[in-house]
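Tokens for chain A. Residues wanted.
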């Protein structure tokens, strides 16, 4: 039977009306339960028998999980906010350019109408498009569980392959915790995102890169870069950043610094691209992203 015709595995369905109720359900069922938000990743994985939760806890009936708002100097985004809302948001475009650029090339309009930012992060996919831009934007996430609420920097949210044998798909979320919002500190500077795939739109990333920079009087005052789809979690280009900080903005400096990312990543070869190609293109995308920022977004 084809995957399109194969029925979903049997499961119990719960539709809590509050976060507190959802947390109780997650604690009660532990690892046997899965959260449903947009369902654009969960349902296909269930059809392919890559996961078979005994209980699905639907978050869509819980109020207060979808919002985009400024609170002081921070941009707060509810975990249940659909990608389409983010794509159309003036605030996101103005305050979090890299995130807006990433969502503009994510999947198809139909998927964006259902998918949520919380789901994109919690899936833990190494090819997901939102983690790299959120990393350079110094974002954090709020997690709420039976022991209360905690805030986790996105740089500490994903577990890397060297930290766990499970590899991609893992985060620090505990069995009874729910991601409730994403927090982005809005500082001076510009950011952008570039993605390489086999085709436009719904293509999975071969490699993607995000960059943030503050340029003052023709010099890089601050620089942050990150690449995705080259490891089990986004990787900051620390050598690239160090090489550019305080340096005059020039094509030569950007090109030379961007090449240093090759020393910081060890991608794998698979059916979509070789490791050597990913290394080379990571350098190219970082160079293009930084050049775009240096040129004022052009």
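Reply:
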């Amino acid at each position: 039977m084809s995957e399109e015709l194969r029925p979903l595995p049997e499961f119990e369905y719960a539709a809590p009306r509050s976060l507190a109720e959802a947390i109780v359900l997650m604690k009660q069922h532990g690892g046997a339960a899965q959260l449903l938000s947009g369902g654009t990743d969960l349902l296909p994985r269930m059809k392919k028998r890559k996961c078979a939760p005994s209980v699905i806890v639907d978050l869509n009936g819980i109020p207060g999980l979808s919002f985009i708002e400024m609170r002081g100097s921070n941009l707060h985004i509810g975990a249940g906010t659909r990608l389409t809302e983010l794509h159309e948001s003036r605030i996101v475009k103005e305050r979090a350019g890299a995130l807006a650029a990433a969502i503009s090339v994510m999947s198809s309009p139909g998927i964006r109408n259902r998918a949520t930012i919380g789901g994109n992060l919690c899936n833990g996919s190494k090819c997901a498009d939102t983690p790299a831009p959120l990393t350079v934007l110094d974002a954090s996430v709020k997690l709420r569980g039976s022991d209360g609420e905690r805030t986790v920097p996105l740089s500490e949210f994903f577990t890397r392959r060297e930290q766990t044998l499970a590899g991609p798909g893992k985060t620090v979320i505990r069995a009874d915790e729910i991601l409730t919002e994403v927090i982005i500190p809005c500082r001076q500077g510009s950011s952008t995102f570039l993605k390489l795939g086999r085709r436009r739109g719904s293509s999975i990333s071969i490699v993607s890169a995000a960059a943030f920079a503050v340029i003052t009087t023709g010099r890089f005052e601050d620089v942050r870069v990150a690449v995705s789809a080259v490891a089990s979690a986004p990787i900051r280009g620390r050598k690239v950043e160090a090489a550019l900080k305080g340096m005059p903005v020039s094509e030569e400096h950007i090109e030379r610094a961007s090449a240093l990312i090759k020393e910081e990543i060890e991608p794998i070869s698979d059916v979509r691209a070789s490791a050597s190609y990913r290394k080379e293109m990571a350098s190219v995308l970082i160079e293009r992203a930084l050049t775009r920022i240096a040129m004022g977004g052009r």
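The longest helix spans residues 275-294. Residues 162-168 have pLDDT under 50 and may be disordered.
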